[in-house]
Structures are given as structure tokens and as C-alpha cells.
Amino acid sequence: MKRTIFNNQLLPWLLLAPQLAITFIFFIWPAGQAIRQSFLREDAFGINTSFAGLNNFQGLLGNAQYLNSMKVTVIFAVSVTVLSMGVALLLAVAVDRMLRSSRVYTTLLVWPYAVAPAVAGILWWFIFNPTVGIMPYILDVIGYDWNHNRSKTDAMILVVIASAWKQISYNFLFFVAGLQAIPASLREAAAIDGAGPVRRFFDITFPLLSPTTFFLLVVNIVYAMFETFAVIDSTTAGGPAQATNIMVYKVYFDGFIGQNLGSSAAQSVILMLIVIALTVIQFRWVEKKVEY
């Protein structure tokens, strides 16, 4: 194994400079601005600014709409994570059993990941549109009156399906890679011992996939809480009656539509702290049960 030695101490910093600059400009500086703004009260034009202390945070904790957005976010994030990872694992197991046509199926299943979130939301909005969509027509045949513009449940189902569909391809790639890394001899030995396909999966395959599953669990929770804004905005816009108004969308709505910049900044800080806390919990306690 060769080690790279830099005779010039400045060279490593120069190589890291582009990434450090990007991290500072697009992550650290905006986060610092949000933290600073969360303690201020200012108008939409930033002309009149006053120090508000913790008033913005106290106002959120007593705001029924904000507490509802936290509840909606939990339901939404759990549903998207479970659905996207479950379907992706099922498809990965199916592809892993194929030999000749696996590359074709893998290519077809990966395509949705290239679709932008806003486009994915619009596609599913058209599919479930009560007026022109095909799914409401099919559901009406079996006796279900679908209308996500009126029903809170229908609206939540729509955004969960649209968001999970967008993430299935990403999860699928990692599950396929994890399955291919499992030695075939282990499953063959279990089959010789009389273990059926289901038992082989739960006793051998799934435990050995735990590192991949743990990684995807973290990624999918962060995805559901942050990167689904475009899906929500293009399908339900947080409605009906705040039923799909997740925390990241409420940050946008209060800040850009309501022009309540201090409250919006405080919401973004709380959302950031929640995601950091979830990540720490997952890596500190959940990871201990992962078998590497």
C-alpha cells in the first residue's frame, strides 16, 4: 500500500479548497444566516429589524398549525421510508434471482430516479386527478370515490406514493449491490440444510443486508423531510386543510408567501436540529444492531 506524502503543506489545502468553498457557501453560511434570523423580527424588506430572542421559537411551540405540520411530517416520513425501501428490496430480490435479463430490468427500474421531483409530482397528480386521471376512474369502478382535493387521506396517499416512487430507484441500486455482495455459498448451504426461500431471506440475506438497510434508512428519512418539497408543491400545495403541509413546506409558505421571516427561520432551525438528532440516534444506537 502506497502513501502519498505532500512536501508542500499548502498543496493539500489547495486541493480541498473547492469543496470547502462549496460547503461554506451553500451549507454553513445559509445555516448561520438562518440561525441569526431566527432570533430577529423583521419586515419583508429587511428595513425594520429588532431582536426577538426566543419569541419566534415560543410562538411556534404554541402554534396549532405548526404542531400539526410536525405530526404530518412524522406520518409522511415514516410512510415514504417504509414504502420506498420495501418496494425497492422486493424488486432487488426479484432482479437478483434473474440471470439473463437482470441488466434490462435494472436499467428500466433506475430510470425514475432521473425524473425531477416536481415532474414526478405532476405525473402522479395527472394520474390521480379526479377529472382526467385514470386511477380515480378505476377506483370508482370498485366503489371508491377518490378526490385528493377534498379528502385528507387521499391527499396523503398521493404525496406518499409520488415521493416514494421517486426514491425507489435509488434504494434499489444499493439493495442490488448489497445482494450481489452476499456469498452465494451461504444461501446454497442453507438450501442444502433444508431452509426454504423465505427462511433463507430472513435468516441469511436480510441480516447481511443490514449495513445497506441502515444507510438507506438514514438517507430516506432525510430525503422525506427535506427533498420532497417539490412533490408537495406540485401536487397538493400542503392541502387540503393542512393535511400534507410538512415542515419543510411550511418553512417555505410562512417565509416566502406569508413573509414571516423570523418564524420561517426558526422553523428551519428546528427542522435542522431534528434531522441532526435523528442522524445521531441512528448512528449511535441503531448502528450497534447492524451486522458488518
Automatic annotation (TrEMBL):
ABC transmembrane type-1 domain span: 70-282
PANTHER family named among the record's database cross-references: BLL4140 PROTEIN (PTHR43227), SN-GLYCEROL-3-PHOSPHATE TRANSPORT SYSTEM PERMEASE PROTEIN UGPA (PTHR43227:SF9)
Swiss-Prot/TrEMBL keywords: Cell inner membrane, Cell membrane, Membrane, Transmembrane, Transmembrane helix, Transport
The keyword Glycosyltransferase is assigned to this record: no
Biological classification of the source: Bacteria, Pseudomonadati, Pseudomonadota, Alphaproteobacteria, Rhodobacterales
Coiled-coil portions: none
Protein name as annotated: sn-glycerol-3-phosphate transport system permease protein UgpA
Annotated function: Part of the ABC transporter complex UgpBAEC involved in sn-glycerol-3-phosphate (G3P) import. Probably responsible for the translocation of the substrate across the membrane.
